[in-house]
Amino acid sequence: MSTFGKLFRVTTYGESHCPSVGAIIDGCPPGLELDVSDIQVQLSRRRPGQSNLTTPRNEKDLVHLQSGTEHGVTLGTPIGLLVKNEDQRPHDYSETDLYPRPSHADYTYLEKYGVKASSGGGRSSARETIGRVAAGAIAEKYLKAVYGIEIVAFVSSVGKIHLPALLSPPSLTPSDDNEDNDNVDDAISEEFRSLLTTITRDEVDKHPTRCPHSQTAEKMTQRIIRAKDASDSIGGTVTCVIRNVPAGLGEPVFDKFEAELAHAMLSIPATKAFEIGSGFRGTEVPGSKHNDAFIRRPDGSLGTKTNWSGGVQGGITNGEAIYFRIGFKSPATISQAQATAQYDGTPGTLAARGRHDPCVVPRAVPIVESMAAIVVMDQLLQQEARKAAASRLPPIKTLPPTMVMPKGV
Ligand SMILES: Cc1cc2nc3c(=O)[nH]c(=O)nc-3n(C[C@H](O)[C@H](O)[C@H](O)COP(=O)(O)O)c2cc1C
């Protein structure tokens, strides 16, 4: 369906070529200072036509606040956000009247609903993600102001070009040891940990690919241009880190923090994979090396020496940085001729016209950040509600000490 979240509820609407797209956000706390510019920043990072690496569809994606604020302050009532679709060219898609685009959603939407938007991807188009990005920007404003939470995503690979191993999660550096050997690095590399601790959006945006390593970014550019020149496309991965999230978020057992995160991320169009912390690579590491030993932090709280867990244990945040990676496929719409079949099964050749992204990951970065912000916000409101309700109960003095956190921690 089109609504995500329980207490911070985001409903998006709109298709690729209808008059507007947008969102209704219910559950935003009242009293938050909110201006259009807070939202526009992320929408402008998502918009098409930013460089020669993205679709040339020319949209400014200016957001119009419809409700839920007055004098720059949220009222606690539903916030309505609207962005006009301006550069509509439905005729670009006429050949897809006959052909479902291979690996796009034309066939499945038609099978499901029995009717589909007459042009473009309709609801399956990435235009839909505008509502998510706008909602995520509002969540982020609250999270930053109240908790100092920071969310930064970046492109970690395009095709086979990855950030250098030292800057990459262990899952990107396959072991060349023999199959029976337990000799693996026993921690995330210092360089990668440091990148996760310090990376900023300004650094990410220095290069149009949104890869924070300039030499790799240049190689990625050439790879995307090669795909574009061949009327083809290429996929990639986005890595995201969320810093300063308090311990205790996540709603076991079905709404565990990483389960909600995976749900949010895999709802983004073109996603094919999700991993958190050590991910698939972690399966190769024995427990003796994979466990994140506890340490006392300078402020007296418990922290972990390593962070293979990616900041989540038992579906609950542990206060360490949360980091995860998402795989995006090579976009389906390519103007290269493809042997395929029409809706009625007649074999034929499709060379899709229209304007398309040769690689979606540079534009996916703010979408990933926004979905992450929505998840954190929703889980935070749930935990705050629980804590507030519990705090009104009289203190229990009879519990055995093993049932409560020792004093001083
Ligand atoms: C930022 C972004 C831009 C996209 N641009 C295109 C595009 O230009 N052409 C295309 O075929 N798919 C594009 N997609 C992906 C499609 O929307 C998606 O592949 C399609 O809806 C089918 O869904 P699925 O890949 O999740 O199965 C884009 C996705 C994102 C996140």
Commentary on this structure:
- The protein has 409 residues and is an alpha+beta fold.
- It has a single domain (3-403), classed as Chorismate synthase AroC (Chorismate synthase, AroC fold, 4-Layer Sandwich), CATH 3.60.150.
- Helices cover 27% and strands 19% of the residues.
- It has helices at residues 36-46, 106-113, 129-147, 190-198, 201-204, 214-229, 257-266, 287-290, 361-391, and strands spanning 3-4, 9-13, 20-26, 63-67, 69-70, 73-74, 79-84, 150-158, 161-162, 236-243, 271-276, 294-296, 302-304, 312-313, 316-317, 322-328, 338-341, 347-350.
- The strands form six sheets. It has a five-stranded antiparallel β-sheet with strand order 1-2-3-7-4, with helices on one face. The protein has a five-stranded antiparallel β-sheet with strand order 9-8-10-16-11. A two-stranded antiparallel ribbon has the order 5-6.
- Helix 7 packs antiparallel against helix 9.
- The two termini are 43 Å apart.
- The chain binds flavin mononucleotide (FMN).
- Flavin mononucleotide binds next to helix 9.
CATH fold title: Chorismate synthase, AroC fold
User: Could you give the order of strands across the largest sheet?
Assistant: 1-2-3-7-4
Q: Kindly state the mean pLDDT as a whole number?
A: 91
Task: List SSEs in N-to-C order.
Answer: EEEHEEEEHHEEHHHEHEHEEEEEEEH
Biggest beta sheet summary: 5 strands, antiparallel
CATH superfamily: Chorismate synthase AroC
Overall SS class: alpha+beta
The ligands found in this model are: flavin mononucleotide
Please state the overall shape, judged from the principal axes of the Cα atoms.
Answer: globular
**Count of individual beta strands:** 18
Q: Over all CA atoms, what is the radius of gyration? A: 23 Å
Distance linking N and C termini = 43 Å
- The CATH architecture term is 4-Layer Sandwich
Poorly predicted tracts of residues: none
Strand portion? 15-25%
Helix content: 25-40%
Classified by CATH, the class is Alpha Beta
